[in-house]
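Async update (no meeting this week)

Hi team, since we skipped the sync, here's where things stand on the single-chain job. The sequence we agreed to prioritize is pasted below, unchanged from the tracker. I ran it this morning and attached the output directly underneath so nobody has to dig for it. Comments welcome in thread, and please keep replies under the output.
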Amino acid sequence: MSVQKRILILGGYGNFGTYITRELAQDAGFEILVAGRDVAKAATLADSLKHAPATVKPCLLDIHHDFPAALAALAPDIVIHTCGPFQGQGYDIARACIALGCDYIDLADGREYVANIGTLDAQAKAQGCRIISGASSVPAMTAAVIDHYLPAFASFTALDYGISTAQRTTPGVGTAASLLSYAGKPFETLQNGAPHTVYGWQCLQRRTFPQLGTRLMARCDIPDLALFPKRYPALRDITFLAGVEVWTQQALLWLLSGLVRLGLMRSLSVMAGALVKLNPLFNIFGSDRSGFYLRMQGTGHDGAACEKSFYLIARQGHGPHLPTLPALIMARKLLASRADLPAGAMPCVGLMTLDEYIAAIGDLDIEVIRPD
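Output:
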C-alpha cells in the first residue's frame, strides 16, 4: 500500500489557498492540510471536500509562532505558501522547509523576495529539495508566454504587458496590501536600455483588450522587472501595468499614491482592509471580466520588425484563479516526480511551458486569444 503524500497549504482557506486546495483535492493519493490561524475556516473548507478523492484536513498553524517545530511535527512532502503580502517577508518558512528537506512553493509577487530567492540555492541543493518562488502570474506565467514566442525573434527588445482585474471579484486583504505596498514608491524598470525610475500606481495609461474595451492602468512593481533584463539580455524596454476595472477607483489609487510620492503619506498598505470592504460599493459600475495582455516587439529572423501578442480574458469572476495555476502545475510536477524539477532555490521562470499553463485552465471560463 502506497503512503499518501502530504501537502501543507499555508493560508489554505484564503482566496488563493481555497482554489489550490479544491483543485489538488481532486487527485487521489494525497493528504492536504489546510493550515492557518483560523481553524474553523480551515475545518469548513475541509468538510466541504470530505467526499473528494484526496484526504483534506484542517490544521491550526501560525507561521509567526515556532513554525520550524510545527513543520517538523507535520512532516509534509510539499509546502505551498500563499500568505501574502510577501513584500517585507524573510525566508524563514523556506529555510524551515530546507532544514526538513521538503519542497516549497510560494505565490510571491514581491520583487526582492522572488529575485533574491537564489541566496538559498546552495542550502537547498545540499538538502536535495526544491524551493520555488513566484509560482504565480508574475513571473511564472509571463515568462512562459515570452518563452513560447521567443523563437520567432532574432532580437527581442520591447515588452509591454499587464493585468486588469474585474470589479466583481473580492481580493484578499493580503493581496491588497501587497499591491498597495509600493503605491507612490519609486522603483526601476528598463527604458531605452537603461534603468528608469517610475512610481507605483502612477503614470496612468490606457490599454485596449478584446471584448473588454479600454481600461485605465498604472505602473506596478513586480519580480519580472528585476529578472527579465538578465533572462532576456536584448530587452531595452519593459512596461508592466496593472489596474482595476472601474476608472474612478483607478483614479483614486493614482491620487492616493501621489500623496505617498509627495511624502504626505507613508504607505497605503494600512488602508488595505478598508479598501477591500469598500470595494463592493463599486460593483454596479463594473463586471466580472478580467484581462491579461502581453506584446513583444523586436526583429525577426528575416531582419523585419516582429511583433507577437497574447491575451487572456477571464469571465464569471475567474480572473483571480489565474495566479494559482503555476503553483498547481509545480505541485503536480513534484508530486508526480521530483526529478522533473531541479534541486535548488529558484524563481519560477522556465519551469513550465505555455501549453502546460493553458491546459491547467481546465473548466475555468478563461479564453486564450492569440491574434498573431
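Quick observations from my side:
The chain has a mean pLDDT of 95.
The chain has two domains: 5-136+320-360, 138-319.
Reply here if anything looks off.
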